[in-house]
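Suppose you are handed a protein chain with no further information: no name, no annotation, nothing but its sequence. What can you learn? This example shows the usual starting point.
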Amino acid sequence: MSNKIIKIRVIPRAKRPEIVELDDGSLKVKLKSPPLDNRANQELIETLSKYFDVPKSKIIIASGKKSRNKIVEIKK
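A reasonable first move is to predict its three-dimensional structure. Written in structure tokens, the prediction is:
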């Protein structure tokens, strides 16, 4: 099986966490954490882990670690 590559737009400091699938196949992910000390990225990995039902170790932020626009790889 091949790995899954997903474009993600992150909205930090949201009132409640939420994942919205967009028409182009990308995701908009709202996170409670602020973008400080890598907390938003950690919450993103935890949220995606639950959403796709995969272990956190299988999710990698391929690009955009310091950006709202990220590319995430989910290993199979």
